[in-house]
């Protein structure tokens, strides 16, 4: 029930177009047509979608992790005025619907480009910053509870040895949080790889400028706007390639994903 | 020393908080402000109109329709997903052959848990594009093809799926077809969640029940379900949020993004159409604020209802 549709997509990616149309149900193609993948990769722009996504993700996930754990650490382990308030401000992002912010966000990005062209619409650096900002809520929430569990004695010992606050964080606390960091890191990779609404909103592609798009957005445009014309097997190949990296990441790290997602839930 | 702490905390918080305030909080605040104006979005003229947009919202036929569709998903998505996930989790964990222990899952349950989880990590976009092909209405889609082969569907008159506005059980058929995708993609995750919770229930409770001659049906409703109440209520809250966010599915799966004939319109689709197609940004922001208030009220209500004393074991 779950696996059959997935298998069907993968097998259809290996069929010829006429096979997809004449025998849509058979799972086994007469001949394995690997060139469907090559065609989707090149003519379907999937290659550039992949490259864009990987570039954006490399920047945004690294930055999300760094900024998210810094904020979470400061909030979790230091008492100061406004601590609770800032924590709740970060948390509030979990409940607000992204659609509400859509219009001002779109306008803000548009206006910024007047002064800072590299942060304008259709720019990857801008997409990175927006991804980071929108991923901070959950990252701070997750890492906050993680830093709280770390024992105090180690921190005290390091301080006695003369370590500065930031040295304590970077050389002691961060390495100690590796399990938590891996979980939230994978979570961010999966979440940002799958982002569709934010890029669609902020990368309003002009015809012929598909080269800037990320994978989820590119795939939608191809299927909704019929970019593949009637290249069904090409579309199947595209879908297969888009889900492959996620499945590989998931299979390798499935324990961390499941324990991360279920953290704090149930008993 | 104190001074060092202040400087350190400021240094660590400045960048993340600044970024967050600028790209997340500030747009929300602005949206609330715009909702009180008649701003069109592509011009500089905006006049303060007070609560006019909200008054208009109340009498907007399309928004009313979208609201009820949101409510439909809000009820059905959690209900069906949780029911299916509980059933699967029960099968995997306690539904196996009744041998000595009598409380093991069916054969290969570990692999099932990995496979069922797949849709959860796939993006909604991949899922949507995939289901587009499954739902193709020209007899070559997966379901139509199968049904025609078995003879359940007339080849000249295939199922229209997401372009079918005809009501079924009181709501347009297209909504049921969208619901099926949502349940398919979510059930695996909640199955894993419930499995984890079921495994933490001490086995001797089941053994005692089995010794007393309880049937499997009884064990499930008398023991498993009550002990899972916490987890189920958390799942309900999560799924509530997912149900409000069906936009990607509506966008990709339905004709003219909310069609046919507005049969699958939801809050988000109306909002986007109003803002970017009709160019009524002020009014669209009012919709956004209404949606946010609705969401927050809902979350508060759910938390209230589900916060009861825990069962300790």
UniProtKB/TrEMBL annotation, chain B:
It is a multi-pass membrane protein. The chain crosses the membrane at residues 12-29, 67-93, 114-134, 174-193, 232-253, 281-301. Gene3D superfamilies: MetI-like. It is found in: Cell membrane. Residues 67-302 form the ABC transmembrane type-1 domain. Keywords: Cell membrane, Membrane, Transmembrane, Transmembrane helix, Transport. Belongs to the binding-protein-dependent transport system permease family. This is Carbohydrate ABC transporter membrane protein 1 (CUT1 family). It comes from Micromonospora violae.
